[in-house]
Amino acid sequence: MKDALRLVEDIFLRLTNRGVKVLVDEAVAGLCRNPEVRGASSTLDALKKADFIITVGGDGTILWTVKRLKPPLKILGINMGFMGFLCEVEVNEVPKFLDKVLAGDYYLQRANLLSVKIDGVERGQALNDVLIFTSKLAKVVGFTLKSDGVGVFSGKADGALVSTTVGSSAYVVSAGGPLVDPLVQCIVVTVLNPLKLGVRPLVLPQNSVIQVSFPKDERRGAAVYSDGTFTELVKAKSTIEIASSSMYVEFMRIKDLRSEFYRKFYDVRIRGGKEA
Fold first, then answer.
1. What is residue 274's predicted lDDT score, i.e. its pLDDT?
2. 3-state DSSP call for residue 120?
């Protein structure tokens, strides 16, 4: 925490010395010692109007920021976490990369969120993934999956994970799903621990609409999570609909997207990296 706050103060001073007006999340500003940083304390409404957002932390910090501020957002992520797939800048790169950003020497990677509707009412959005999981631990749940009205799975399992391209390097790959190249726009559906052993993950077009329903004899229903946050407990008579949202996040990129993606994947997910 102390290292992160020192970095926040350093970024603040570097930018203000260049004539940039900097707003600081009020919760973060309240923890900083520098009176100038504390004086820049800003509400969520003010932060939403900023030209871009700098996050200091890891992928979880970015997911938390997206939930709090709501898209569309332009984000530059500085990595102080374990994974850092969504982040662009390492701590030692901050001075050089801030100069590049101020000079406009960057490009944008757009990532659409997933929209979650329950019985036709939108209940949440997710940048990484939507998890539909058995509402009772150690018990499987029966459900049917359809993509644009076409049945793609019917049976019992722990649940299903619906992921964006951005989320493919997270929970989905740990659950046996595919690693999706960052230039491929799609939706990945992974059935979790199905009783039918022949079930495999599905890669579907990005404009697909995924429907989850439950058979008449199913009584348990399911719990729905968006980016790891509990959304709602769904009754067995309900229908869940997941589709690509019109809302999006634009990640500010300076490095080559694909080479960095695969480097991080093999360093962190294969060899252990920071996670070790």
1. 58
2. coil
Residue 84, Ramachandran bin (φ over 0: left; ψ between -120 and 50: alpha; else beta): left
* Sheet strand arrangement including 229-234: 202-205, 186-192, 159-164, 129-134, 222-226, 229-234
Domain parsing of the chain, residue ranges: 2-111+248-275, 114-246
- The pLDDT assigned to 220 comes to 84
Amino acid at 264: K
Same-fold call for 2-111+248-275 versus 114-246 = no
Q: Which two tokens stand for residue 119?
A: 């019985």
- Does CATH place domain 114-246 in 2.60.200.30? yes
Query: Please, what is the angle between helix 2-16 and helix 94-102, to 10°?
Result: 40
| Calpha distance 166→85 (Å, rounded) | 9
Dmax over CA atoms of the chain, in Å, equals 66
Closest CA to 168 of 185, 145, 191, 148: 185
Write down the pLDDT at residue 72: 94
Which of the residues in the chain have pLDDT under 50?
Answer: 275-276
Q: Which residues pair with 233 in a beta bridge?
A: 223
Known catalytic residues are: 59
Q: Is it true that domain 2-111+248-275 has CATH number 3.40.50.10330?
A: yes
Give residue 275's pLDDT: 46
